[in-house]
Amino acid sequence: MFISEDCGKRSRRIPASRNTFIRSGEWAIISRHRIIFSYLKSLKFRILLVLLVAVWLPMLLVAFSILRSCEERSIAARSTEVQNQCRILSNQLVGSHYLENPSSDLVDGELTQLSGVYDGRIIIINQDFRVVKDTYGLVESKYMVSEEVISCFKGDTTNQVSGSRFIEMTVPIQETDSAKIVGVLLVSISIDGIRDNLEVLTRNAWTFLMVYGVLMTVAAMFLSYLLVRPVERIIRGLQEIASGHSSEDLEVRTYTETRRISEEFNKISMQMRVLDESRQEFVSNVSHELKTPITSMKVLADSLLTQEEVPNELYREFMGDIAEEIERENKIITDLLSLVKMDKKAATLNIEPVDMNDLLELILKRLRPIAAKKNIEMVLESFRPVTAEVDEGRLTLAFTNLVENAIKYNKENGWVHVSLDADHKFFYVKVMDSGMGIPEESLDYIFERFYRVDKSHSSEIDGTGLGLAIAKSAVLVHKGAIKVSSKLGEGTTFSVRIPLTYIA
């Protein structure tokens, strides 16, 4: 039983390992294909391909054109040379009356020599279309009537390449004094010698092309490596930064493009670091702001629990303090939820035409009781009726926070001035006050979450430190802008610009 069980186990394991081997082999093939495909899509391969095309294509075109030109010029030169020899021979034939009496040893010798030199065949035809002489001796005394011969008797000479081995031409035999055509020379010469020379030239050309092409291919591969090297340095730098092994700025200034990429990445990296620090500070601030009311409530509750027979007056006082801390906690959470909503995409906006004059009048009406406690005068100055496409709820929250801050951080018997104006494209809202003002070094930070300008009085002035962050988010989500100017001890002005027509 032990042996059979063990064999059974082994028999079950073998297919599993075989399947694993097959899967490993398939994964190896897939990985290899991915590597090849990745290389084919890489910048290095495309630069290499462009360089190879730029090297090989002109080189091959020049080689083929040169070889073709050499062949045509060699054949043309041979044809011209044979035609000149045939004209000389034609004069000799007329002068010796060879067409009437083909028995001149001098002419026969010339014919034999000429056909031997050019490895060809010469046929002499008289005006009766009878073959007077054939250097091959095959068609003598026979008639030869062809289109080329007839055309030559009419004065039209022919010169053409027959197949790829011969040049065929017709040359008229003319009398010197009357220019009468009395015969035709039908000449066929071999171009095998020209072909042999071209083959040698072609072999030499291909040898040169291959050697030169291999050298240029190696040079193109090396050049593509050099050209892509700065990009690979950027990739390695990004990988090191992404893995956390490096916090240095990326500096690759080989090309203008790599320099610009490095600069833009460094800007983004700086923004990310600032954002990360801002998030950490935000989490710390949120923890602190939420923990403070809870700590106060715990202290008050522990005080009540540790005391026996707590008087009703003290009990009511402590419970009132606990209720205030709960209200403070609730306000912080409400403002945080409002800020989260502001950070959502613009697709969640409820855009509709809103009368901005009525909106600002309603905001000031709601806040006048708060301003009355410090005897602060509130004025709305509207230069013209303004209707804009906005999210009424978000802008109400934004302008409420701006005006409420102008009241909170104002002095007794001060004033808050709100103005509304517009042009053909934007509407403008300014919230000005006669308050304590903001130090110049704090102007860049007042829109940060939980930032307080005067931390020593932050506990005295009711608020969560999120109002300006909420206002800025609401303005930015409308594709607007918000700016602040202030003089310490004189007052602060917030300027808001928002498009009249919302553009998604």
TrEMBL record:
Transmembrane stretches, start-end: 47-67, 205-228
InterPro entries: BphY/WalK/GraS-like, HAMP_dom, HATPase_C_sf, HATPase_dom, His_kinase_dom, HisK_dim/P_dom, HisK_dim/P_sf, Sig_transdc_His_kin-like_C
EC number: 2.7.13.3
Keyword list, A-Z: Kinase, Membrane, Phosphoprotein, Transferase, Transmembrane, Transmembrane helix, Two-component regulatory system
Sequence ranges assigned to domain HAMP in this UniProt record: 225-277
Reaction(s) catalysed (UniProt annotation): ATP + protein L-histidine = ADP + protein N-phospho-L-histidine
PROSITE patterns in alphabetical order: HAMP, HIS_KIN
GO molecular function, one term: phosphoprotein phosphatase activity
GO biological process entries: cellular response to phosphate starvation
Histidine kinase domain: residues covered: 285-502
GO cellular component: plasma membrane
Taxonomy, superkingdom: Bacteria
Alphabetical list of Pfam families matching this protein: HATPase_c, HisKA
Localisation per UniProt entry: Membrane
Main EC class the enzyme belongs to: transferase
Main location: membrane
Name of the protein in its database record: histidine kinase
